[in-house]
């Protein structure tokens, strides 16, 4: 086994598998978590489960299993448009536990639910599938979907951060309450890794459309792209582990300077 093969294939596969298992394991525990707001816990648990299943989709593609068994590509486990919405609602309800979902909140789920129905229909009715799998104009699995992903993620992080700033202003404290401090770290870290993913995605778009170079043919690029999402998933999982480990502490009135 060559060093290049180990770095561009086996290492990403191991890291992707580890992040997948961590996200699903930690996400499942959030549904059993009793401290904190139950709805916020379940939203974060759903975020990690959706992230882990999406990682399984990427793993099937990266290892070539989806090419060998084409039906695997259309398993309804691809939740890219769910992730930012679940993160946003988790932060919002964590900050405002008394908030009750309204009819207007359904707008957040238009694209996520449509994406789920899209994959369910492809899984159940094979004739709906396109031979090339992804295609550019698909808003649920293709170039347009990636564009939505890159727009929606930063937008929802910004929306969540606005709620955090508003909540802090309402508390009128010189130091930051511990729960708000952790949520701010969660949002900042998520934005950083989303930007890294966006840089790779835009590089691929520019190279393909203007220089006629398909970056996906480059082993290093495929590895880097898979790792960019993996790092985001690891970040969300580590945060979730911290909340589970020190969950009661987060709810105390302690502050962080």
Automatic annotation (TrEMBL):
Keywords, comma-separated and alphabetical: Membrane, Transmembrane, Transmembrane helix
TM helices/strands, residue ranges: 6-32, 44-69, 75-96, 108-126, 146-164, 185-206, 226-246
Name recorded for this polypeptide: Uncharacterized protein
Organism: Neolewinella maritima
